[in-house]
């Protein structure tokens, strides 16, 4: 079974631009979560989608948004990019939301904002 | 709010030796899981071991074991017979269960280097 895939793997943008990152979960997984990883703030939860609905959201500004499609693929969008948005963005999928089931992480998208 | 603290930014160990990584956490929840994740230089996060809070018995997975002290809110990872492939960042993480948010809360990580 294929793992979690994220595209693109690397991205360079300039301040003020917007960006869209994509995540394809493991087949059969319906929950997708996004995390931001930076040297200063570490790993922080952005949001979780389950069955096309945002189930949970972290403490990030409204410039960060996401969505999930009927095939469970998810995208996250960051508008009006700032230098501080430079980070590794990790996506994780699991079968369901709620009770515990293992999360599987993708390789991440490295975003650099110049 | 949940917090996870890893007080050792970097550690090193000789190949074949044993090393222990420390983690403490703070929560008012009673029903939760604790995890250790490994992030090698390739960056893909991998689950190493998990511990259910309601279980008193410490979890083990081959060369990896934990020392879970619920009252002290301590959750350390012991790696026995360290191998070169164990070189990675290790993150301690917390997840509460039940209704509502059950995302992962991560510590700041410990960079482990296994020396040949």
What does this structure look like?
- The complex is a heterodimer of chains A (114) and B (116).
- Chain A is mainly β.
- Chain A has strands spanning 5-7, 10-13, 19-24, 31-38, 42-50, 53-57, 64-68, 74-78, 87-94, 104-105, 109-113.
- In chain A, strands 2, 4, 5, 6, 9, 10 and 11 form a seven-stranded mixed sheet that branches. Chain A has a four-stranded antiparallel sheet with strand order 1-3-8-7, with no helix packed on it.
- In chain A, 36% of the residues are buried.
- The relative contact order of chain B is 0.34.
- Chain B contains no helices and twelve strands.
- Chain B is mostly beta strands.
- Chain B is globular and about 45 Å long.
- Chain B starts with a strand and ends with a strand.
- Classes of the chains: A mainly beta (114), B mainly beta (116).
- The interface between A and B is medium-sized, with 22 and 23 residues.
List keywords for this structure.
heterodimer; A: 114 residues; mainly beta; 4-stranded antiparallel sheet; 53% strand; globular; B: 116 residues; 52% strand
Largest interface: A-B, 22 and 23 residues
Give the tally of β-strands of chain A.
11
Point out poorly predicted stretches of chain A.
none
> How far apart are the first and last residues' alpha carbons of chain A, in Å?
37 Å
Number of helices of chain A: 0
The description of the largest β-sheet of chain B is: 6 strands, mixed
* Gap from first CA to last CA of chain B: 41 Å
Oligomeric category: heterodimer
Based on helices, strands and strand pairing, what is the structural class of chain B? Answer: mainly beta
Report the helical percentage of chain A.
under 10%
Number of strands of chain B: 12
Binned strand content of chain B:
over 45%
What is the H/E order of chain B?
EEEEEEEEEEEE
Shape of chain A: globular
Beta content of chain A comes to: over 45%
Output mean pLDDT of chain A.
Answer: 94
* Radius of gyration from the alpha-carbon trace of chain B, in angstroms: 14 Å
Main β sheet profile of chain A:
7 strands, mixed
